[in-house]
Write a structure and sequence with these properties.
Length: about 170
Amino acid sequence: MPFATLLRHGLLYGVILSVALSLITMGSLYWDAEMWLHDYPQDIIEAHGPMGPRAVSRKRWVGALFLVALVAIVVWAIVALHRLAPSRPTFIDVALVAMIVYMMFNAVDLLILDWLIFVWIRPRWIVLPGTEGCEGYADYGYHLRAAGKGVVFSLIGALVTAALTLLVRAVFA
C-alpha cells in the first residue's frame, strides 16, 4: 500500500485512540489521582507513601477499561485497513499502521497530558495530598524518559499486532 495511505490511516486511528485514552486517563485522574501513583516521579511516590486499597481497586478497573479501549481501537484500525486495501495488507503495512497509532498516543501523552497538563498547568486534583512542592511535578525530563520507553513499547506492540494479524488471517482465511 502507498505510504501516504498508511500514514493517513494510522494518524486517523491514532487520534481516535489518543482521544479515548486521554479521556480515560484524565477522568480517572480527576476521580482518584492516587490510582496513578506509580506513574508519578519518584520523589512524589516517596512523599505520598503507599497506594491505599481504594486506589488499588480503582486502578484495576481503570486499567481494564484502558486495555479494552486500546485493543478495541487497534483491532478497529486493522480491520478498517483490510477493508481499505485493494489487496491484503502486508506484515509491514500492519506494523507501520500500528506503530503510527501507538506513537500518536505516546506523543499526545507526552506533550499534552504530561508536559502541558501535569507539569505546566498542574491542576490541584493532580497534586496528591502531602506532595505539594515536590520537584517531580516540574520534571519535564522524567516524562521524556517515560515517552522513550513508550517508543520501545510502541515498536514491540506494532510487531506483535502485525504478527497476531497474520496469525488470525491464516487461521480464518
